[in-house]
Amino acid sequence: MSRTVHYDTNGNEIYEEDCINDAPTYPQEQLADIERREAVDHPDYYKRGGIEAIDAIEAWELGFNLGNVVKYIARAGRKTKDGLQDLRKAAWYLDWEIKRREHQ
């Protein structure tokens, strides 16, 4: 008797016969696609306290420059080890927005 191996969203092996709840299960190839999409759509380095930077940016209607300030602060030291570079980028966008508003 062969059993089909599926994986739950945490990557744990489960078998069709072991599925007793309504949680979705996926073949390994499909799970890899889901993980890739999550890495693109919702990377961990943009999440703080359960909030994604993009959600705050849109809710607060920050626009491009201030949105980038929030984005770079949110990921400082999380996407790469050099958090200082992200803070410099945030400062650059903040300075650009200040100059833009001074010349309106």
What's the helix count?
4
Structural class label: mainly alpha
Sequence of secondary-structure elements: EEHEEHHH
Q: Count the domains.
A: 2
The total of beta strands comes to 4
Q: Distance between the terminal alpha carbons, to the nearest Å? A: 74 Å
Classify the beta-strand content into a percent band. 5-15%
Using only C-alpha atoms, the radius of gyration works out to 20 Å
Shape: elongated
Helix content: 40-55%
The parts where pLDDT drops under 50 for at least 5 residues are: none
Task: Profile the largest sheet.
Answer: 2 strands, antiparallel
Report the average pLDDT across residues.
76
| Adjacency order of strands in the biggest sheet | 1-2
What does this structure look like?
The protein folds into 2 domains: 5-41, no CATH class; 44-102. Helix 2 packs antiparallel against helix 3 and helix 3 (63-75) packs antiparallel against helix 4 (83-102). The chain is elongated, with a radius of gyration of 20 Å. The protein is mainly α and 104 residues long. It has helices at 28-41, 53-59, 63-75, 83-102; strands spanning 5-7, 13-15, 47-48, 51-52.
Give a nutshell description of this structure.
The protein is mainly alpha-helical. 52% of the residues lie in helices and 10% in strands.
What is the secondary structure topology, with strand pairs?
Elements: E1 5-7, E2 13-15, H1 28-41, E3 47-48, E4 51-52, H2 53-59, H3 63-75, H4 83-102
Antiparallel strand pairs: 1-2, 3-4
